[in-house]
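Example with several molecule types.
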Amino acid sequence: MPRVGVLALQGDFDLHAELLEGLGVDVVKVRRGEELADCEAVVLPGGESTTLSKLLDRSGLREALADFVQNHPVLGTCAGCILLARRIEDAAGVLPLDRLDLTVRRNGFGRQIDSFEAPILREGGSGGVTPASAFIRAPRILRVGDGVEVVGRWQGEVVAVREGSALALTFHPEVSGDRSWHEGWLVDAGLLAAREL
Amino acid sequence: MSPSNRSRTADERLRLKVGLAEMLKGGVIMDVTNAEQAKIAEDAGAVAVMALERIPADIRAEGGLARMSSPKMIREIQQTVSVPVMAKCRIGHFAEAQILEALGVDFVDESEVLTPADEKHHVDKFAFEVPFVCGCRNVGEALRRIGEGAAMIRTKGEAGTGNIVEAVRHMRTVQEGLRRLQMLRTDELMAEAKEIGAPYHVVLQVHEEGRLPVPNFAAGGIATPADASLMMQLGAETVFVGSGIFKSEDPAKRAKAIVESVTYYDDPKKLLEISMDLGEAMEGLDIDKLSEKELMAGRGW
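Resulting structure tokens for the full complex:
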């Protein structure tokens, strides 16, 4: 059974943990550097990016996590996507981990009143359209660097990207209960056997 | 282009509201009265701020009627911080809630801390796009508010006292009520729904899922990292801190400490480290010495 860490400093880490357990994964909630040691991959959940960034510094977890994501599979949703980016427009105290060459804008669609659900058009692989996922005070990807592959769009806009086994989503499949992104990520990382669909 | 001009289905709307509450889990929501305090709260790592003109301790001390805060003050706070901004409306005052929605606040707290506008009816929260949080003292009250569309429930506690005893009572009572609903036979649920005054469909949902259908946060009287840890260990998923921060000796330091105490709520060594050298906490009030009229938790039903 693969062991996957879920960063549990703040945010919707329980939703990710439930979803991963449903896929037959052994979940470790990560609040301390040493808890990463046993993990084969890590999920950075949704939450408040300013809070997460500050807690990464104060917990002493930043360095361990930054190292870990450079050579292990990582999945980030919403705030997790912000943390994986290289640059944040108007960062105001949020220091990202620089795993993917992206520039993002926080709260790119506006306030909660502008939150929405929408299906995602997959690019690459077998393509197709996913069930609707929640964009909650979601970030926007403003620039995608060389070597980063676009794997999902909504209304033409980039909302899902990957490079190797690092996957970043601006939305929350874990809120809507769509397991396909987590499952595909684990399969691509060699941590889960592909299912016959 | 945001698709917010497209009308949402009722299910989608509720998922988005509860979804935002999920994002706030494991965090601290802080009461702030101006942009400067909002900045201190955000720098300390607050997941959201509650914008209000007077914190509960001052409402208590100064007395008089407490209404929705000035939209101008709330807007200044919205322009200062990037974390979600919440604001309070009076119980039943749906027009105040409409104004707060138009202002674009991220969450409305239909709060007993303000003077109730309606002695019988709470706001129909399904009628709004903006999510609502409501206070409760027991599971029946929690399920009534969820039945009206609340996306988050919090204990009422006794705001502005720095005294945790009421929040503890409310959290334990809610948890006990949840355990009881799980335990009952299905054919006993209707009588229980009648007894606790809760909508049957929500009672059934709790019976089947074994938990509240929305996040359950703690509020009212939290003043120290230990208070925050206590509430988390009793089952809260996030804490609201009102007067406890800006009525203390060193707000920035205390705010940071309470943020960390929620993340590490189950780690006593870490809590010890966090609790060291924080300066004076806010002055507390003995709730037994307050008269019935001074208590806020009894507002709403």
